Amino acid sequence: MLEVMSTRPQSLFDQLDAMHRLLSRSFGVEGAPGAIRSVAYGAFPEINVARTANSVEVFAFAPGIDASSVEVTIERNVLKISGVRSSGIPPRNATVQLYANERPEGRFSRAVSLPDDVDPLKVEAKYRDGILRISIAVNAAAQPQRITVQ
Amino acid sequence: MAERNELTTTPSSANNERPVLPAVDVFEDAGGITLLADMPGVTKDRLEVKVDGDSLSIEGRVELDAPAQMRALWAEVSVPKFARTFTLSRELDTGRIEANLKDGVLTLRLPKHAHAQPRRIEVTSA
User: Fold this and answer.
1) What is the DSSP letter of B126?
2) Which residue of B has its CA nearest to A17?
3) Between chain A and chain B, how many beta carbons pairs sit less than 8 Å apart?
4) Domain ranges (residues) in chain A
5) Closest by alpha carbon to B28, among B104, B116, B101, B120?
6) CB contact (8 A) between residue A133 and residue B77
7) pTM for the whole thing?
8) CATH code of residue B53
9) Number of compact structural domains in chain B
10) Which chain A residues in 6-45 lie under 8 Å from chain B, judged by CB atoms?
11) Fold topology of A39-141
12) How would you classify residue B94: left for phi > 0, otherwise alpha for psi between -120 and 50, otherwise beta?
């Protein structure tokens, strides 16, 4: 108990900070219905999904992870991202005093369902500046085509 | 009057967006304080670390290298901007702050003034 109290000060300001963060984000695209796989605030990594004419782009906001340790799988149109994140905090001892400890650490795993028309065999994943970007191609048959009238 | 017109014509989304507070870890050792801040998508040239008196502020804009014709399906990160301000205490030497940005994590090292570092006082017996 004493250790919890001394290493994680929960002042009123910390709580206000947390509240501010909660309020400063909105869930989902405005007006869009919530997804069945949506999760509570604070999930790691946070995910944005967008689509272009020929691909679905997934952006996972995962700062400070080792890209080679991340596992990305697609199974039945569900994209799963999992891995481990280690914090940069040195092991606690008498000389290190920890104050704020908000950054998530440890194992993480998130799943998003993809649109039906993606091609799970054409996937590219890149990690840059803390964002893992996964591009999944859309089936050629689902891409817009121009039909010539004869 | 002219100023007012200018104000009303600026796009509201660009100015009124409230930045997101980045999640941070802060810890202290004998030599100083270290702050780690999660700022995914922020690059070095879009990051600003400022010290003004006893206030330290960090601010960064998220850069998504995204094709122009993209339609959002789902967005948990809706404001592409991080900002947070901290109040520093006097024993920290603001002239020697070191900043490093890697994989979207900002590491700030705030060293203490030499005179503020803990010293063990030798007790001598007379």
Assistant:
1) -
2) B21
3) 146
4) 39-141
5) B116
6) no
7) 0.74
8) 2.60.40.790
9) 1
10) 17, 20-21, 24-29, 32, 35, 43, 45
11) Immunoglobulin-like (2.60.40)
12) alpha
Residue ranges of E strands in B3-121: 24-29, 32-38, 42-52, 55-62, 71-75, 81-87, 98-102, 105-111
Asked if ipTM goes beyond 0.90, one says no
From chain A residues 66-85, the ones with a CB under 8 A of any chain B CB are none
Give A19's Cβ-side CA count (13 Å radius).
7
* Residues found in chain A: 150
Q: What is the pLDDT of residues B2-12, one digit of tens each?
A: 344 333 333 44
Dump pLDDT digits (tens) for A13-24: 555 555 555 554
Q: How many CB atoms lie within 10 A of CB A41?
A: 11
Confidence band for B80, pLDDT divided at 50, 70 and 90: confident
The structure tokens listed for B27 are 């810890």
Is residue B58 within 8 angstroms of chain A, CB to CB? no
pLDDT number for residue A19: 58
Asked whether the beta carbons of residue A95 and residue B29 sit closer than 8 angstroms, the reply is: yes
How far lies A4's CA from each of A8, A10, A99, B30, B83, in Å? 6, 10, 11, 21, 28
Residue B105 lies in a domain: yes
Domain that holds residue B81: 33-64+74-117
Task: Let me know the angle formed at the C-alpha of A41 by A48 and B61, rounded to the nearest 5 degrees.
Answer: 50
Which of A129, A131, A133 has the highest number of chain B CBs within 10 A, making it the mutation to test binding with B? A129
Instruction: Place B38 in a pLDDT band, splitting at 50, 70 and 90.
Output: very high
CB nearest A63 (choices: B40, B65, B76): B40
| B106 within a domain of the structure (yes/no) | yes
Q: Could you say which residues of chain A have pLDDT below 70?
A: 1-42
